[in-house]
Amino acid sequence: MDFLVLFLLYLALVLLGFVMICIGSKTHYLQGLISRGAQVFSYIIPECLQRAMLRVLHYLFHTRNYTFVVLHLILQGMVYTEYTWEIFGLCQQLEFSLYYLFLPYLLLIVNLLFFTLSCVTNPGTITKANELLFLQVYEFDEVMFPKNVRCPTCDLRKPARSKHCGVCNRCVHRFDHHCVWVNNCIGAWNTRYFLSYLFTLTASAATMAVVSTVFLVRLVVMSDVYLQTYVDDLGHLQVVDTVFLVQYLFLTFPRIVFLVGFVMVLSFLLGGYLCFCLYLAATNQTTNEWYKGDRAWCQHCPHVARPPAAEPQAYRNIHSHGLWSNLREIFLPATACYERKEK
Predict the structure, then answer these.
(1) Do the Cβ atoms of 330 and 192 come closer than 8 Å?
(2) Known catalytic residue: 119?
(3) pTM for the complete prediction?
(4) Each residue's pLDDT expressed in tens, for the chain with a length of 343 residues
(5) Which PANTHER family does the protein's record reference (predicted)?
(6) Structural domain count of the chain
């Protein structure tokens, strides 16, 4: 019982931490909190260990490497191995429909396809050859994306909605973010693959959670455990409740219950992130623009000429042209079609 409480508290803390990061990512409060926490740890952790940790973090998050790609495939392989090894066979014995049992495998195949496309597809790298083409795609808003700005690293004029990725060391058209899980930037030409990958990954986790949960519920119903009684620590006779059933199942099928908990939490996290990405797609925003939106003031743009007494202008999304037009822009990027015709 103590273990179950600790496990639930752990899950609650993970979810709370994720929500706090999502809510506080656009505020200076979270950044200040992290900064103060780092200062506290700097007094506790030895300097040599700090340098080693910084080198590891720099390698993982600031250089292109396949660490998270391999980790992704290992975790996915472990989950499906457990599903195949235990849940699939037991569900067959309980006469589950094969359509439901094979659905996670179908989603896995589709997910791996879009995962591969997200990894290998050019996100929209800006070069000398296509610089003029990209400059004509989006209008400059003169707030977040002023005209005539050059990337000091690539020595290119920066088209509207582009950004230089420090990890990949390139400027990307309609830059969204750099995803360590696919070891690639997410930009104009592979956002559609990334959204499809995220959707199928969420669907596969949710499907596996539903199938596993239904299996456990049917097992409890068939064994009539919920009709039994037990003696508690004080010697009193108690009716079996939900907490006791969860503990009983965890002791009987520990790997399956742990798998259910893992895919449930993963489904909520991925589902929340998927909803956020769909919101950005529907409003024709990128993660980069959403994050920087409330900080884009003209007085912070050194390349925009304005009188000293002029009022600062808040950022306004000028690229949204309706739901279907926004989605068509993501799933049928015009510049990608143009490039293929040129080739």
Answers:
(1) yes
(2) no
(3) 0.84
(4) 455 566 666 667 666 666 555 555 555 555 666 667 667 767 777 888 888 888 998 899 899 999 999 999 999 999 999 999 999 999 999 889 999 999 999 999 999 999 999 999 999 999 999 999 999 999 998 889 999 899 999 999 999 999 999 999 999 999 999 999 999 999 999 999 999 999 999 999 999 999 999 999 898 888 877 677 777 667 777 777 777 787 788 888 889 988 998 999 899 999 999 999 999 999 999 999 998 875 554 444 444 444 454 455 566 888 999 999 999 999 988 755 445 445 4
(5) PALMITOYLTRANSFERASE ZDHHC4 (PTHR22883:SF466), ZINC FINGER DHHC DOMAIN CONTAINING PROTEIN (PTHR22883)
(6) 2
The active-site residue, picked from 119, 171, 179, 298, is 179
Q: Is 166 helix (H, G, I), strand (E, B) or coil?
A: coil
For residue 41, which amino acid is it? F
Task: Tell the residue number behind the tokens 């490497």, with chain if given.
Answer: 65
Rg (CA), the chain: 25
The closest alpha carbon to 311, from 88, 143, 115, 103, belongs to: 143
Residue 217, both tokens: 């519920």
Residues of the domain holding 249: 77-121+188-296+320-334
Same domain, 264 and 238: yes
